[in-house]
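It would be a great kindness if you could assist me with a short task in structural biology. I am sending you one protein, given as its amino acid sequence and as whole-number tokens for its backbone shapes. I would ask you to consider whether the tokens describe a fold that such a sequence might reasonably adopt. The full record is reproduced below for your convenience.
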Amino acid sequence: MWWHLRSELSVPRTAFRIYTLSLIGDTPGEDDVSNDIVLDTLEVPKDSWSVQLTAALEAGVFPQEWKHSKGVFIHKSGRDPARPNGWRPICLVTSGSKLFERLILERLASCPQIRDRLESPVIHGFCKGKSVDTAALRIINAFRAGRKRSKRAPVALIQLDVQNAFPSVKHSHILATLARYDVPRYLIDIVESYLEGQSVAATYGSDEATVGLERGVPQGSALGPFLFLLSTLPLVDAFSGMEEKGVSLTLYADDTTVVVSAGTGPLLVKRWRSAEALLLAWAANAGVSYEPAKSQALLPRTIGDDILSLDGTPVDIVKVVRVLGVLIDRRLSFQHHIKVKCAEAKAKLGRLRHLGWARAGITGKKVSAIVARIALQAPRNSSNAALCVAAGILPADLEIGRIAATRLAALGCITTLDRTLSVKGLK
């Protein structure tokens, strides 16, 4: 038995290249060691890595120096920058922590009960073979199926806003979830050690501070978001069998979307209330909360006097709802989405066009501007001609002639070139 456990805990040297390949391109942490450097030099320290990480797994202790990360705060679009929830905290961890976290993640994902639940069509974040595209497709297909059921049958797409999901989830809930799904004890111990004593160094201008994390998981790491994903597995179990009753749940990280369809308005509201009860029960256990004021519902057909509410607060009924970056309208025409994306692309192309427009044509004003720019590129203690010679700059008249010749020759208009140079006194 002891030798079997020892074999289970040992970290083979051949595994490190697999773990590092999955981390290529990540931003370095406080040690300023990129993953590319780790991969290029892996052959030398891999024996030491194997011994040290195996010892850490046996002791059930995540190294304390790897629990400290560098904080980068990204402003959330449309949020008040003066409020804490207006920023998204990203934790940049050290190279050693990334490697160990990836090892723990792979072992957690290989546990039989967790592996089976990660294959559920409900979950789409941080899973192999799934992405934001598969999540959006599932939501759209469920909404389309509800619309096609009957001309009068109502369907609702409810997008829920989870308030500060990653920083709020309780450590006790994560550990209880791991125990619930028969995760080996040594992995539970190492995850518990990982969660204890996490800290983030924050820098704003000349001010610096280190903040300890008493709950939640660090964003920006490999293991943190995956642990949040595992915390939602009880919710996946609670919704098993609900799809046959017209309730479809889709989870992508902390984005939660529910599609409810029924034959009548009152029945739709009843089904939603059943789903709402499951969602609120999970949120209470996990230590997170939904924000009804920012949640939205898409209803192609009216449901009478019935109201969709979340925790006692009515949910806003909208004509277009944003789900995972896709703007979904009632008719699934995606016209609004296409219009918005075309406008964004046009604006970006316009900015790119203006970057190169300064020399797109030779006009009188531009000729004067070029002369002034060349003449003013040096101190005023010598003549322009002397400055050009000393700096190795082509004289202004020759420079302008060269630019004009290049531009007009490309247009194939020699007559216009001669006339332009004559007008400017350059021929």
User: Anything to note?
Assistant: Residues 265-286 form the longest helix (22 residues).
